[in-house]
Design brief:
With about 500 residues, the chain is α+β, with helices and mostly antiparallel strands. It has eleven helices and 24 strands. The relative contact order is 0.14.
């Protein structure tokens, strides 16, 4: 249903109810228990996941809609963790190679000791992160706020960490560039959507404290139920192993660098941490952030109802299950304050020797074409592929024969990372893509090799410093003797 064009009601301004059967949230005016004299904090946001929002979300129709929209990964984690309706669960892991859905130890009350230098934390909600913020006619029509970011509040040994960092894109991004990148990633395209989101990001929070950071990206909406916090990686190579692509990709590296600063601040030893997550959402008529469900029509009543709800939404500080308190044991080496720096991917140690030259030369040329070439033009403008890394993918190295559902061969393919040096001191890029060749039923080629993405998702593009690209070239040339040398 396309909402009628209108001027959005300013978030935080009370308007007359559409009718007696409309339930809409009030401003997020709460008592800050940490403030001297328990003063009230007035924000520009309305509350979601408060008692009123939860009552609307708990309706059978809303639960059914949330279930229908849920991503398979969210359902698997939620169900295997045994998350009850209306509740949240927290887990942690200290090894990169972990089956997340199989984790059983509750992070709340745990003693976390990342002895190998890896640490991730995850919260999973039974319901989607996009909470219901208003309904009419006892739930006949409902609106959810589109979640574009998540505030992370942290206290360490009772001290509140209020860095207020925006985590999106590269760690080197300043706040403005990180927000722009994050809003792009979140898919907020219209001026109204971005304005409301920025007002929310720049405004006061209902709890009276600034967040430690705000995570920005696309993976908090459209049926996602969990928030992943990659905090530590054992090595520069394992940074990308710690990040769950695509869920924490937009902010993961930046978050790990901020965590390194926090560890340096509190120092080695055992500490008590409390982490609270607070999704941020927007409702904007006539945009993709107008998430209606139920018996939606174009009536003036429904349009007025949507206008009533327009604005920014902040998760209530009292939202059940959105926080976890645990102890953490940090080592000296965890507290250096040095930001983890991404290195290039590694060459597969078992790539068939008789395929290396063909695959390397072919991928080197095709990295500049098709989907990887288009991504490189955005990530490293003016650059051409200077090196290729041939990796293991899902346990497979070398050229594989791919068959269709009936068992007939349809193509050969292998995977490659193309490295692109940044021009004039800019960041470079490493981009993973498929190299594909169609074949007939007898395995004979019917076309030439071409570059492809991953069909349901784009090529995997990661920013990287030029110095790390140079190290990768020297490393790989010493090990595999790169065919024909590399490009300057």
């Amino acid at each position: 249903m396309g909402c009628a064009a209108s001027t959005a009601v300013s978030a935080g301004v009370e308007t007359d109810a559409v009718d007696a059967d409309v339930i809409a949230p009030s401003n997020a005016t709460v008592t800050d228990a940490n403030a001297t004299g328990a003063t009230a904090v007035e924000t520009n946001a309305r509350a979601m996941r408060d008692a009123r929002s939860n009552a609307m979300t708990s309706r059978d129709a809303r639960r059914s809609a949330s279930e229908a929209r849920a991503r398979s990964a969210s359902v698997r984690v939620r169900d295997r963790w045994g998350v009850a309706p209306g509740a949240c669960a927290w887990r942690f892991w200290t090894e990169e190679e972990t089956t997340v859905s199989a984790l059983e130890t509750d992070a709340r009350g745990a003693r976390v000791a990342p002895e190998r230098g890896d640490l991730s934390l995850m919260m999973c909600s039974h319901d989607g992160l996009e909470a219901v913020v208003g309904e009419m006619d006892e739930g006949r029509v409902a609106v959810r706020a589109r979640v574009f970011g998540v505030d992370v509040f942290v206290t360490a040994d009772g001290a509140t960490m209020e860095d207020g960092r925006a985590c999106a894109g590269e760690p080197e991004f300043d706040r403005e560039r990180a927000i722009e990148f994050g809003l792009d990633e979140a898919g907020l395209k219209s001026d109204d959507e971005r304005r409301v989101a920025r007002e929310l990001l720049d405004g006061k929070r209902a709890c009276g404290s600034a967040p430690w950071c705000t995570l920005l990206g696309s993976q908090f909406s459209a049926g996602n139920h969990f928030v992943h916090l990659p905090l530590m990686a054992a090595s520069s190579y394992s940074i990308d192993g710690a990040i769950l692509d695509p869920y924490s990709k937009s902010y993961g590296h930046s978050l790990m660098c901020l965590w390194a600063e926090l560890c340096h601040k509190i120092g080695p030893g055992e500490h008590e941490l409390t982490v609270r997550l607070a999704p941020l959402g927007v409702v904007v008529p006539d945009s993709d952030s107008c998430l209606l469900e139920g018996e939606v029509d174009d009536s003036a009543e429904v349009q007025a109802f949507v206008r009533e709800l327009a604005g920014g939404y902040e998760t209530s500080p009292d939202a059940e299950g959105m926080s976890a308190t645990f102890s953490i044991v940090l080592r000296e080496e965890d507290c250096t304050g040095l930001a983890p720096e991404r290195s290039a991917q590694e060459w597969a140690p078992d790539w068939p020797s008789d395929e290396i030259e063909e695959c390397y030369v072919t991928a080197m040329e095709l990295a500049n074409t098709g989907p990887p070439g288009e991504m490189a033009a955005k990530m490293a403008p003016g650059s051409v592929c200077c090196h290729v890394i041939l990796p293991s993918t899902d346990g497979q190295s070398g050229i594989a024969e791919v068959r269709d559902a009936s068992g007939s061969p349809i193509r050969y393919e292998f995977h490659a990372w193309g490295l692109f040096r940044g021009v004039d001191g800019a960041m470079g890029a490493q981009i993973k893509f498929r190299v594909v060749q169609d074949i007939d039923v007898n395995g004979q080629p019917t076309g030439t090799w071409r570059s492809e993405d991953y069909e349901t998702r784009p090529c995997n593009g990661l920013s990287i410093k030029n110095s790390q690209i140079d190290r990768a070239i020297a490393r790989d040339d010493a090990i595999v003797r790169i065919p024909g040398g590399v490009r300057d």
